[in-house]
Design brief:
The chain is α/β, with parallel strands linked by helices. The protein has a single domain (about 5-165), classed as Nucleotidyltransferase, domain 5, CATH 3.30.420. About 40% of the residues lie in helices and about 15% in strands. The protein has helices spanning about 5-10, 60-75, 85-90, 95-105, 140-165, 170-175, 180-190, 200-205; strands at about 20-25, 35-40, 80-85, 115-120, 130-135. It has a 5-stranded mixed sheet with strand order 3-2-1-4-5. α3 (about 85-90) packs across α4 (about 95-105). The protein starts with a helix and ends in a 15-residue tail after the last helix. Residues about 210-219 have low confidence and may be disordered.
Length: about 220
């Protein structure tokens, strides 16, 4: 379970405000990568009931994630989300796009941070002092809050895409490479929100042979 030890260590040094940041959607074949940044109140003790809702969003069922996000919206000093679309992911790569989303979310906070706690990601440049924490979403309440905000926001986006691009099952699998999604890719091909730089999507583009399909002999 996360706690406030990372935040309290910084607060004891006089560092505030502190923002946690995390992303959701590095792995899917479709849709944006979404990040959130959250500034929690510096007076928290860690014993607040609503904090117990927070954890790494991957560990939580959807209903609990929704509860956690509502708690963040009610209690956080500031929160913001940012999304990088599939075309930009294809252009700069998913790692760079994930970091860009996290930094954009931090930039958009109404309370500008003095320090960032990032769920681990390689960072070359950052406008703020930061720590990139391995498994940060299971260690820091600030990062866990951002994890849930990002995940719920992205899941909602993908649910909306179910209406715009029917037939792929986006509301069910959120763009991840499930058997259903891969089957639909083979049957109807990619749509506008698919990440064409990801191998299963590239293989489903018109003119690209499917793995295991017979190759036409060279002439």
């Amino acid at each position: 379970m996360p706690d406030l030890s990372l935040e309290l260590a910084l607060l004891r040094q006089g560092v505030r405000p502190i923002a946690g940041a995390d992303e959701a959607g590095r792995g899917p074949l479709a849709g944006p990568v979404v990040a959130a940044a959250v500034v929690l109140p510096p007076t928290l003790t860690g014993r607040e009931d609503w904090l117990q809702l927070l954890d790494d969003s991957k560990r939580l069922p959807p209903a609990r994630r929704e509860q956690a996000f509502l708690a963040v919206q009610e209690h956080a000093l500031a929160w913001a989300v940012a999304a990088i679309p599939p075309a930009e992911i294809d252009r700069i790569g998913i790692g760079a796009a994930s970091l860009q989303a996290m930094l954009q979310a931090a930039h958009d906070l109404s309370v500008q941070p003095a320090h960032l706690l990032l769920d681990y990601i390689p960072v070359r440049q950052c406008p703020w002092p930061y720590d990139a924490i391995v498994k940060g979403d299971s260690r820091s309440y600030s990062i866990a809050a951002a994890s849930n905000a990002a995940k719920v926001t992205r899941d909602r986006i993908m649910g909306d895409y179910e209406q715009t691009y029917p037939g792929y099952g986006f509301a069910r699998h959120k763009g991840y490479a499930t058997a259903l999604h891969l089957a639909r890719l083979r049957e109807i091909g990619p749509c506008d929100i698919h990440r064409r730089s990801f191998a299963p999507v590239a293989q489903a583009l018109p003119g690209n042979p499917q793995p295991g399909s017979p190759q036409r002999p060279a002439r």
